[in-house]
Amino acid sequence: MIGKEIKNLVMAGALVIPLHQDGAWTQLQFNKIPVNEVQFSREQLTVKVSKSASPLIYRLAEVKMVSSLKWNVEVRGVPPNSGEQFPEDFPLRVGLVAQGDKTMNRLQRWAAADWVKKLFDLTPKAQGLDKIYFYNLDSQSRWLGSSRTHPKSDLMYESVVASLKDGKSKFESTLPKKLPVAALWISIDGDNTDAQYDLVIKELALGTD
Fold first, then answer.
1. Closest C-alpha among 120, 98, 99, 123 to residue 111
2. Low-confidence residues of the chain, pLDDT below 50?
3. Is residue 80 within 8 Å of 175, Cβ to Cβ?
4. Distance from the Cα of residue 94 to its chain's centroid
5. 15-67 pLDDT tens trace
6. Under a CB-based contact definition with an 8 Å cutoff, are residues 162 and 72 in contact?
7. How many CA atoms lie within 13 A of 182 on its CB side?
8. How far apart are CA 167 and CA 101, in angstroms?
9. How far apart are alpha carbons 120 and 179 in whole angstroms?
């Protein structure tokens, strides 16, 4: 499905996210943090991490009620270690940007960080934001089953839902609740742990109603 116009591919209730063209994705940069190198090919999306971090955003053509999540990924190299505290670096966070009732006035927008402004811009103008629901892949299984509201922002809620086995992860699960999703926010990080590895996304899909 390669062409000038990028569309969501809907097959039997699944929204298959295109991985082959950078025109479908936006990469953000945080202040003073090196960015990941992103490579698009016909078969997969590869993110090269070198003590770096930069989110990838894919905006859906319209808000979809999402009931499940599926991925097939591979890590080449040494991913970030889990550590004794809830990690700041995960080899993969798949974030579902959910529509809600939070909005920002002009003063709040003026004072907000750039990533927060971008997050609010992902939902339809007539609607507001709930938060990003992150589903995390752990490099081991230390934090499997754990969840938290991120200490730096109540706009991020993350759950550790899978762990690597022999450098690979195939994950598919129904979400705890259906979410009205406007975009994907994917984080692949190595800046806090000085990690260097490649994350290869071979498949990414959402179950929709």
1. 120
2. 1-12
3. no
4. 3
5. 999 998 767 899 988 888 999 999 998 889 999 999 999 999 999 999 999 99
6. no
7. 19
8. 39
9. 16
Q: Which residue, 205, 206, 203, 202, is CA-closest to 76?
A: 202
On whether the CB atoms of residues 135 and 93 are closer than 8 A, the answer is yes
Q: DSSP of 134-167, one letter per residue? A: EEEEESSSTTTT-EEE-TT-TTEEEEEEEE-BTT
DSSP the chain: --SSS---EEETTEEEPP-S-GGG-EE---TTPPPPEEEE-SS-EEEEEES-B--EEEEEEEEEEEEEEEEEEEEEEEPPP--SS--S--SEEEEEEEEESB---HHHHHHS-HHHHHHHHTS-TTSEEEEEEEEEEESSSTTTT-EEE-TT-TTEEEEEEEE-BTTEEEEEEEEEEEEEEEEEEEE-B-TTTT-EEEEEEEEEEEEE-
Alpha carbon 80 to its chain's center? 17
pLDDT of residue 11: 42
Structure tokens at 57: 């955003």
| Structural tokens at position 168 | 């690979």
Q: Which residues contact 169 (CB under 8 A, 6 or more apart)?
A: 71, 72, 73, 74, 92, 137, 162, 163
- Of 95, 34, 89, nearest to 59 by C-alpha is 95
Nearest alpha-carbon partner for 155 in 98, 87, 109, 107:
98
